[in-house]
Specification:
The protein is mainly beta. The protein is built from 3 helices and 30 strands.
């Protein structure tokens, strides 16, 4: 075979014996050495949930998500992950922009969004520099009887370095049980945990999720029995009613909420400096078929052959051809007729493959590949509104068969452009309801012991002489919701993979998408 290799006219003889080391070079994979970091633990704990019974109301489970670092020096700024619940156990519903109940954004009117913040979930009040989003992706990608929720805690400050998260509670949620739920352990699983540090661009932080789950209990919650205590039952001898001025009780209520806009896809990036193999960003009008284009930036180096892997991140798959190979095609203008493609991992079947391997090489053509040239294209299918494809394990060779050092890689983003929506406007008005307070003086109480079961509550009963006026007062008011600022009155949701970010304010989400692109893949 080597004797048949002839360089094209104008090529020197250095290419004749270069193919053996060239092919050997292509068998060596370049692995980056990741910096050593302590592991950040995201601890998800739930309490028991009670379905209710015998006239007792159901009691939801309380879910708390905490951040725990192995070392105080570890830095974490952004956390996002998916939790998948059993619909037979929990009755989970969000709220559309018009306050109607929803399970997916696609069911909301006027392209609204389905949100779980703050109806079901709230961030910890100490996190003043972060925003919480809890949304159900429209592309659920789960088995029958399961329901996926996406959680994202991201910063709203754009200084470098970014504000960090300290150990402690990140968020809490309520999980109402189904009335028909069976008694037994709660079943919750997780997917796609990502934790990033405080740099721009962000770097991945090694992380894990620990689930500590309660149980589903059919019936009423047991009532605690308290020790009997004596409470006073005063008897008034003389009553002189006096009335104190009412104390106004303000309550804030949203009077106008318009939908939060979905974040546009980031503009496709240009070529990296090189030498590098990179995937072009793609912006689509809708999910479905998409062509992935892999290119080479030579950086001024002579490169005659390359190989790399494509790792699929998200709901995107590379199509297959009749011989069960990836539907990928080398650029015919390169005349690299020895090129080949295969699915990864080796031996995987349809639905289980996570990527492909591509080798762009020729046994009789040692012409350098031009800078910016398309190496190959692949037909793929996007089943979400966003996915990332990582370019990894890049190797390259020159015409002598020597490896080209320092060849990098850049991932590509496939994104569906969302329709524009108006900017949210929230107006709060204060409502004051005056209520009189009655003070009775001159009473001489005589204690009478009574037994209180449950949580002891002091009670008092006064009787006045016949003919004495007994004014009564009723205090009314709307208690203000807990939480911090906007989370008390604005809800949120998504439509698809990127919706964790789509539902945030547009100026922030655009930055966050760009930041996410720079994050290395999480294993």
């Amino acid at each position: 075979m080597m004797q048949r290799m002839r360089p094209k006219r104008g090529q020197n003889q250095r290419g004749k014996m270069g193919m053996v080391p060239l092919l050997a070079c292509l068998g060596l994979w370049v692995f980056g050495v990741a910096p050593s970091h302590a592991v950040v633990t995201i601890r998800v704990a739930t309490t028991d949930a009670f379905t209710g019974g015998d006239g007792s109301p159901a009691v939801p489970a309380s879910m708390t998500v905490r951040l725990e670092r192995e070392q105080p020096s570890e830095v974490a700024t952004t956390v996002n992950f998916d939790l998948i619940f059993q619909t037979s156990q929990f009755d989970l519903n969000g709220t559309c922009d018009d306050s109607s109940s929803c399970r997916l954004s696609e069911t909301c009117p006027n392209q609204g969004t389905c949100r779980f913040v703050p109806i079901r979930c709230q961030k910890d009040p100490r996190l003043t520099d972060h925003v919480l989003e809890v949304v159900p992706p429209d592309f659920q990608n789960v088995a029958e009887g399961e329901y996926r929720l996406r959680f994202a805690l991201v910063t709203t400050t754009f200084l470098n370095p970014l504000p960090t998260l300290t150990d402690g509670a990140l968020l809490t949620c309520t999980l109402p049980p189904q009335a028909s739920a069976a008694s037994g352990p709660q079943v919750v699983r997780f997917e796609r945990l990502q934790v990033a540090d405080n740099q721009i661009p962000a770097r991945a932080v090694p992380s894990r999720i620990v689930l500590e789950l309660g149980r589903i209990v059919v019936g009423a919650r047991p009532t605690d029995t308290a020790t009997p205590t004596a409470t006073a039952t005063p008897t008034a001898t003389t009553a002189t009613p006096t009335q104190t001025p009412p104390t106004p009780t303000p309550s804030l209520s949203p009077t106008s909420i318009t939908p939060i806009p979905r974040t546009p896809c980031p503009s496709p990036r240009g070529a990296p400096a090189g030498p590098a193999v990179y995937l072009e960003d793609v912006v689509l009008a809708s999910s479905g078929p998409v062509t992935l284009t892999v290119k080479l930036a030579t950086g001024g180096r002579e490169i005659v052959a390359t190989q790399n892997d494509l790792e699929l991140r998200g709901a995107i798959t590379i199509d297959r051809v009749s011989n069960d190979r990836p539907d990928c095609t080398v650029n015919p203008a390169l005349n690299k007729n020895g090129s080949a493609f295969g699915f990864l991992p080796a031996g995987c079947t349809a639905g289980t493959c996570t990527g492909i391997r591509a080798a762009i090489v020729s046994l009789d053509n040692l012409d350098p590949i031009p800078d910016g040239a398309v190496l190959y294209t692949c037909r793929a299918t996007l089943a979400d509104v966003e996915a990332r494809v990582d370019v990894t394990n890049v190797a390259a060779s020159d015409a002598n068969g020597d490896p080209v050092p320092g060849v990098g890689a850049r991932d590509g983003l496939v994104c569906v452009e969302p329709p524009p929506t108006p900017t949210p406007t929230v107006t709060r008005t204060a409502t004051i309801t005056p209520s009189p307070t009655v003070t009775v003086t001159g009473a001489s109480p005589t204690p009478t012991p009574t037994v209180a079961v449950g949580s002891p509550t002091a009670t008092a009963t006064r009787t006045a002489p016949t003919g004495s006026p007994t004014p009564t007062g009723t205090a009314t008011g709307v208690p203000s919701e807990g939480g911090d600022g906007c989370d008390c009155s604005v809800t949120s949701a998504e439509r698809g993979w990127s919706s964790v970010w789509l539902l945030l304010p547009a100026v922030y989400l655009s930055w966050r998408r760009k930041r996410a692109l720079a994050m290395p893949p999480m294993e």
